[in-house]
Amino acid sequence: MKKLLFTLIVLSLTLTTIGCGGSSSNNSPADNPTPISSDYIGLEPGFQLTYHETGIINKKNINITFTSTTITTTNYVPGVFKQISSMDPSKGELILKEGNNYYDYGHCFPDSVDEIHDPPYELLISNPINPSFERYSWGLVKGQENVTVPAGTFNAWIFEEFENENANGITDKEFSKIWFVPYLGVVKVEHSYKRNGETIDQSISELISSTKR
């Protein structure tokens, strides 16, 4: 079973740096302005996203608030950034930006040695998004739609993924839907996981606010 993490990615996400191309207009309503990033996926040093998540995780009720923060690093090649979530500060993501492409560079551990992937690095996302793009951890692009979350109403790209696995008499079904807003990041995630018909995970995460430090 894949676990969806906001590093955002967030997840971002979830999960970032200075992006180029595309347009950020009409992504923040006048009655609820939300700071946006200069980077296509929100990877800008000091850019922070705060989320609220409710539902069931591992058959336990949850109601939590957490943040995802982008940090610059000089330990690696230019264009590598750290993304840390307050949900699990012991581990973060390393994202490499080259031109308009973003890659999974590895994992960072504040209390131990970082884990760097071997090239070629997995492509996380490109600017702009191709309607036929597929991302391993997010799924397939399903188009665009307006979505309303506590942070505001935005025009977002939708990613969906469904997995149905049967092995040794066990049936696992997992579904995820992700709303991604350029120059902001992931603003909403719906995730469900069932084993033999029993709900193990069923949660919704929504963006509360964004902050530039």
Mind explaining what this structure looks like?
It is a single chain. Strands 1, 2, 3, 4, 5, 6, 7, 8, 9, 10, 11, 12 and 13 form a 13-stranded antiparallel β-sheet that branches. The protein has no helices and 13 strands. With 213 residues, the protein is an all-beta fold. The protein has one domain: YmcC-like fold (Beta Barrel). The chain has strands at residues 47-57, 60-72, 80-85, 92-98, 101-108, 115-116, 122-126, 134-135, 139-149, 152-167, 170-181, 185-195, 198-212.
Label this structure with key terms.
single chain; 213 residues; mainly beta; YmcC-like fold; 13-stranded antiparallel beta sheet; disordered N terminus
Give a short synopsis of this structure.
With 213 residues, the protein is an all-beta fold. It has one domain: YmcC-like fold (Beta Barrel). It contains no helices and 13 strands.
Question: What's the overall average pLDDT, rounded?
Answer: 84
Q: What is the H-and-E element order?
A: EEEEEEEEEEEEE
The SS-based structural class is mainly beta
Helix content: under 10%
Q: How large is the count of helical segments? A: 0
| CA gyration radius, whole angstroms | 17 Å
Strand content: over 45%
Class in CATH? Mainly Beta
- Major pleated sheet: 13 strands, antiparallel
